[in-house]
């Protein structure tokens, strides 16, 4: 590591479970972030500030003034830009060493197949179930750890799915793809601005723990957060042996 890196990342280097080796792993890692909005903003900024070597960000939307209430990577003067380009600029202002790959495209199956295979960790910061299931399928196919988050109104969820671990469920084990779920979005239901920051920060934290070698304690767990009463509930989750998504890829 260079002298500048030793200084920049000194507070991480002081962590016993992190150290120089952990930081070197982070600096050599590739994180894939799907979604550059309320969750993707804090995720990308924290991954960038921590020195993740390569961050690929996928999102086809442009910055809108209604985003600025909660999507902290974007600014007034970048309204109209693609969100991925705005995120790249925001990270560059914090840590110019990080290589950001902005992809202003929809996260379809073909794109996910290509980029999930290249990533060391995948962070789902999307806002609809179809995309979440597509991300999960690609992560299962390529055996990549998935850090999944969601936030709406004053509620939030976070979980880590890693099918490299024998007994760990995938996203579809918990939320079956054939199960009808009513879509809820910020545009119609609202969301407390700092709450997406809380969930996104937790996602970034779990991803960095994975990349540094510390590992995540959220595999096989679903954490549900209620901002109204500041209550946190964690439930154990189980692999579904008949899961139509992950069972064909397990021995």
Question: What can you see in these coordinates?
Answer:
- It is a single chain.
- Helices cover 37% and strands 18% of the residues.
- By secondary structure, it is α/β, with parallel strands linked by helices.
- It starts with a helix and ends in a 15-residue tail after the last strand.
- The mean pLDDT is 94.
- The chain has a single domain, classed as Rossmann fold.
- The protein has helices spanning 3-8, 10-13, 19-27, 40-50, 83-94, 109-116, 129-142, 171-174, 186-189, 193-212, and strands spanning 30-34, 54-58, 99-103, 121-124, 146-152, 155-161, 221-226, 231-236.
- The longest helix has 20 residues, at 193-212.
- It has an 8-stranded mixed beta sheet with strand order 3-2-1-4-5-6-7-8, sandwiched between helices.
Write the topology of this structure:
Blueprint: H1 3-8, H2 10-13, H3 19-27, E1 30-34, H4 40-50, E2 54-58, H5 83-94, E3 99-103, H6 109-116, E4 121-124, H7 129-142, E5 146-152, E6 155-161, H8 171-174, H9 186-189, H10 193-212, E7 221-226, E8 231-236
Parallel strand pairs: 1-2, 1-4, 2-3, 4-5
Antiparallel strand pairs: 5-6, 6-7, 7-8
Helix pairs in contact: 4-5, 4-10, 6-7
Q: Report the total helices.
A: 10
Largest sheet: 8 strands, mixed
- The CATH superfamily is NAD(P)-binding Rossmann-like Domain
Number of domains: 1
Strand tally is 8
CATH T-level fold name: Rossmann fold
Q: Helical content, roughly?
A: 25-40%
Helix/strand-derived class? Answer: alpha/beta
Mean pLDDT: 94
- Major sheet: order of its strands? 3-2-1-4-5-6-7-8
Level-2 CATH architecture: 3-Layer(aba) Sandwich
- The SSE string, one letter per element, is HHHEHEHEHEHEEHHHEE
